[in-house]
From TrEMBL:
Record family assignment: Belongs to the site-specific recombinase resolvase family.
Alphabetic keyword roster: DNA integration, DNA invertase, DNA recombination, DNA-binding
Residues forming the catalytic site: S24 (o-(5'-phospho-dna)-serine intermediate)
Gene3D superfamilies linked to this entry: Resolvase, N-terminal catalytic domain (3.40.50.1390)
Annotated organism of origin: Neoaquamicrobium microcysteis
InterPro entries recorded: Recombinase_CS, Resolv_N, Resolvase-like_N_sf, SSR_resolvase
Domain Resolvase/invertase-type recombinase catalytic: 16-149
GO molecular function, one term: DNA strand exchange activity
Name this protein carries in UniProt: Recombinase family protein
A Pfam family recorded for this sequence: Resolvase
Entry annotated with the keyword Nucleotide-binding: no
Keyword hit for Protein transport: no
GO biological processes: DNA integration
Amino acid sequence: MAREAQNRRSARPQGRQIGYARVSTDEQATDAQEIELRGAGCDVIVQEHGSGASRARPALSRLMSEIGAGDVLVVVRLDRLARSVSHLIDVIEELSEKGAHFRSLRDPIDTSTPQGMFSFQVLGAVAQLERALMSERTKAGIAAARSKGRLPGNPGIRERRPEALAKMTAVRRASYSARVQSNINAWLPTVRRMRPDHNWDDVARVLKQRGFDWTPERLRRAVKWLVTERLADPRLLDRAPPRLPEDRLMTLVAGISQSNPDLSLRDIATQLERLHERTPRGSAKWSASSVKNLLDRARRLGLAGEPLAA
């Protein structure tokens, strides 16, 4: 039995143990959660003050963007991370895509073990059953209403009542706000570095290389909303200056380099080829020297940082 226990311990991922401690209001403290998380071996603890019902949590979004393969996200209880099964499953699936794991100290969920993964799969089955039952109840309610001559849906919306329309607008705005802010710390810094020197097409293409599925119009609309809410500088919406083809390539290469300083010249060349960008001479094949020439020019204009390795 001792050997089996040792094998189980050795099978655990050899990454960081990252604790997440959340309380609902600023008056509450995360001290008790931090004590448990440190006792469980957490190297880093991320604190957050915010409602569990809201998915717009900047600290959690930043944590999710930075967590890496082999890392384990640890919470004291499941309700510290999510208030719904669907939200919990979304977070765990995102961690799984990154090669990371999830563990709750007071619940039988540890996705780095077969037993914990089984518990997670049971939760997924429960969530799927919940969605199926909800759909059936909704269909039955609509059928019953129609049989009695009533139309389904909100009568206030159908009758265009101002108070009902205002409430619907508020709900939509809150939902849009949550979507935009859910991972804002992962993509907004790139926008800040590139705008307004780069057009929205170039910014969206750089973000796409980093895993964000923005279209130029959706990205511009999201930034416009942030400016309206005073969460971003209005200058981000300024019109990008017209540029010659080589100037556009220079700013694009500088933007890629600034977005991810760890990229080598060859890495940037590979990204440009994936974007189907042609060199200043019209070639589809990029060399490290072509990238270096554009970066050197951008550096002289103050658009790029220190020289990169080939």
